[in-house]
Amino acid sequence: MKLTIDNLDGAGVRDYTSVTDAQGLPVVQRRLNQPAAMRVSLLGTPQSPPVPVPGARVILAAEDGRSFFTGYLSEAPAFEYLGWGEQGPVYRYDLKTISDEYLLDRKSCPSRADFVASTASEILTTLTNDLAPGTLDTTPAQPCDVIPRYSVASDRNWSEQAAEICLRVRGSYRVQDHKLILAPLNSNAYTLDETAPQFEPAGLKIVSRGRHANDITVFGAVEPWAYVKDYFLGDGVTSRFYLSQTPYARRNYVLLEQEYESTLDPRWWKPTDPQGAIFIQSGKLWIQDGTGADGATVVQFAERLELGGAVVLQHGDVSFIAASDGILGGLYTSSVSLANCLAGFRITKSGAQSQISAWINAAAVGTPLTTSDGHHYVISTRMYAMEVFRSRQRFHASQHPAGNALGGEEVPCDVRIVLEVHDVDPNNPVSLVAPSTVLFDGLVQNAPGVCTYALVNALDMHCALAYTRLLRAPEAVVRSCLPGQPYRTRLVGALTDGAECRLGSNGDLAFYSAFIPAANEKLVVSYRTSGRAVAQATDPADIAAQAMPGDDGMRGSVVHLAIPEPRTSRDCANAALAMLDDSTQQPWSGTYETVSDFLPDAALDIFPGDGLGINAPSRGCSFEAVVRQVDITVLDLSSDRSQYRIAFANDAADPLGFHHDSSHVQGIAQITVTTIQPDPAVLPGLPQAEVVDLTSTWVTIDAGVAPPPGGGFEVRRSDSGWEAGNDRNLIAWFTVQTFTVPRLARAQDYYLRQYDGSTPRRYSEFSTLLHVDYPL
User: Fold this and answer.
1) Of 258, 300, 262, 257, nearest in space to 281 by CA
2) Number of other CB atoms surrounding residue 268 within 10 Å
3) Are 321 and 438 in contact (CB under 8 A)?
């Protein structure tokens, strides 16, 4: 082996092999998804190479060029005086080094756009280039699996976030030779067989310790539950209406607040500008493009957007310099082009002016707005989806490796899109508080779960944008209609953002004085309730196998899972099923020590994350494990010989796909736990159900979908008792889409679920609540 060090003093790489202390030969420590470390001692005399400095580049390599360690000196050497030699004083100095991610861990991870539906390699590559572009070769990184959403934490370093990403996809990473190597666990697999000639029996130590569980309950976050629609009637005076339930609420926060004062930050924007048409000047983003090419000049958001919950996109305050052609604020199903635009503001030429139209599903809809000289236009998109999370979380285990996770399905959903333009005349102060013009207010059916957002797609665009703002909005849709008029969306939020009403923390809906509902104006407030995400899964076969007289065989475990976070009860169910993959197996862990000449399967080297099959019939075990730790002690630099200590375990002994939260869940006794068997199929909810007519004695309901084959719709007075034989709170069963139910009071609740013809019946996962509060 050869030990070389570059002190970064311009003298290049020096060979320190000859001054390596025989009592302090290199020891390399490798841990799964952690930086590797190496300790080595050198002897220093007046004739020795210079003492390495902190930050020096250190490489330990075999004679054939294979690297065993590459990294950097993480701190100043520790000196020990040994005496006086023939050439003067002799010192021993100990070096502590960290692998190549040392370059990245010294930097703070900058804030950036959340990753949505990105692979592990995409996230790690982007994080690496954010911190130190060109430092690492990321081409060896494999995709592993898709992560639904990942937020960068500025208070954690690169390697800590790399470890979490690997945990989420059941992968392993290491940084060596300035290369980022990312792969699924077990990508390289070896066999440790006691019948093999090179096997060392004394070097193998095995134990079986771990908790057996065949009945697992997983608690997750607070999730959206029932679909609710509250119906009110305005009287021209009342400004405050009280909701029947407490709405589900995520933390409302600003995803992006962009003031254009310098260059476009690549952590937030990906501009495509072959003609140099995009520039920033005087606090504005300018577009001066005349190519006429669709998708050629683009300002695209750095990451995808999830079309879930309530999101407000304030594209900016736009001033048109000349007649223009293109799309502003576009949401695209794939690449940026007119044909792929799901929703956006289509700008077209109209003589010397421009026209602004709603562009929905690649076509213009509605009446366009023609611009005026000297005016500027604040354009915004509001998106409302009754499904907050548009994809299931992914969970991995030994039988569900990277690429084959439990979960990950897209959640189908319609999305209400509202496109609005606020026309501001600087010479007319009244225009500042005038209502916006709504160009489109409608449902986009079966909207994709994620989309590409481009602020600008310029065909022939001549304009300036003053700012861009993306934010989470309250998770509620407020709509109203006057007698004989169609429904329109009432904007929820701050008055300064052009909203008409706000949702209070105590569950009240308050309208600002200028927007109080008129007499006989109908109001519908749509939202979700909230509850704790929880599910239970069992393995009946293992329970039966564990049973004995006086013991029913149940082996229970309650888990509060932190990573990957179960956002819904369905996620909790998938997490519990993934845990059952391994918790019902026999736990095995151990270590194996051998010299490098006798590594399993004649391997040249072995790393954490490699698979290791153990075949030791004399010890009563045969199992598959994952290498967790490798310690390499160099025995002889001249012969490339080292002592290896390999620590391994299977997932039954030490799970690799989960990180548990040590906190306790409060109020467990009040939580309904859904037991999930291996087929967790349920029917969809009824978010489109609505009241279509009502009198003082009857309410007519449209379920929004046709009844399932052999089934129908069950209507109850409370959200309980969903089964065929329970009529305690039952109103009726219906086998048609539209039906009538009795009304007995001013305020009344109707809970709906659909059911099918199976035995026992399958029901919707969540109820729909239609709450009527009308004068009799």
Assistant:
1) 262
2) 17
3) no
Where is 570: in which H helix or E strand? helix 569-583
pLDDT at 669: 45
* CATH code of the region 257-472: 2.60.120.200
How far from 545 is each of 537, 551, 556, 585, 685, CA to CA, in Å? 17, 11, 15, 12, 37
Alpha-carbon span 695 to 611, nearest angstrom: 69
Q: Give burial (CB, 10 Å; 0-12/13-18/19+) of 610.
A: buried
Query: Token pair of 132, please?
Result: 């130190």
Q: Which CATH class is domain 189-210+587-649?
A: mainly beta
Residues with Cβ within 8 Å of 336's Cβ and at least 6 positions away in sequence, in order, are: 295, 298, 300, 330, 452, 454, 457
pLDDT value of residue 760: 87
Say what the pLDDT of residue 674 is.
57
Question: pLDDT at position 678, please?
Answer: 44
DSSP string, 276-337: --EEEETTEEEEE-----TTTEEEEESS-EE--SEEEEEEEEEEESS--EEEEEEEESSSSS
- Residues 323, 352 contacting (CB under 8 angstroms): yes
Q: Which amino acid is at 634?
A: V
d(CA 238, CA 19): 87
Prediction pTM value: 0.91
Q: What is the pLDDT at residue 191?
A: 95
Predicted local distance difference test score (pLDDT) of residue 254: 83
- Identify which of 175, 176, 159 has the alpha carbon closest to the alpha carbon of residue 167: 159
Residues with Cβ within 8 Å of 94's Cβ and at least 6 positions away in sequence, in order, are 24, 39, 40, 41, 77, 78, 80
SS3 586: coil
- Residue in the block written with tokens 């009304």: 743
What are the structure tokens assigned to 565, written together? 């976070």
What's the chain's length in residues?
776
Which pair of tokens denotes residue 42?
């050198």
Chain-centroid distance of CA 474 in Å reads 20
Helix, strand counts (H, E) of the chain: 5, 54
* End-to-end Cα distance, the chain: 91
pLDDT of residue 161: 96
Mean pLDDT of 580-590: 94
Distance CA(332)–CA(342), nearest Å, equals: 5
Q: Is the pLDDT of residue 3 over 50?
A: yes
Q: Which helix (H) or strand (E) holds 420?
A: strand 415-424
Neighbours of 65 (CB within 10 A): 7
639 three-class SS: helix
Alpha helix (H) residue ranges in 484-607: 540-546, 569-583
CB atoms within 10 A of CB 485: 10
- Candidates 120, 187, 113; CA nearest to 152 is 113
Nearest Cα to Cα of residue 756 among 712, 691, 692: 712
Q: Judge whether residue 565 has pLDDT over 60.
A: yes
Class of domain 690-773: mainly beta
Q: Tell me, what's the pLDDT at 670?
A: 47
Q: Which residues pair with 432 in a beta bridge?
A: none
Instruction: Give, for 750, the enclosing helix (H) or strand (E).
Output: strand 747-755
Q: How far is CA 185 from the centre of its chain?
A: 21
Q: Which two tokens stand for residue 107?
A: 């930097």
Q: Which CATH architecture has domain 106-184?
A: 3-Layer(bab) Sandwich (3.55)
What are φ and ψ of residue 174, in 5° steps? Answer: -155, 155
Would the pLDDT of 619 be above 80? Answer: yes
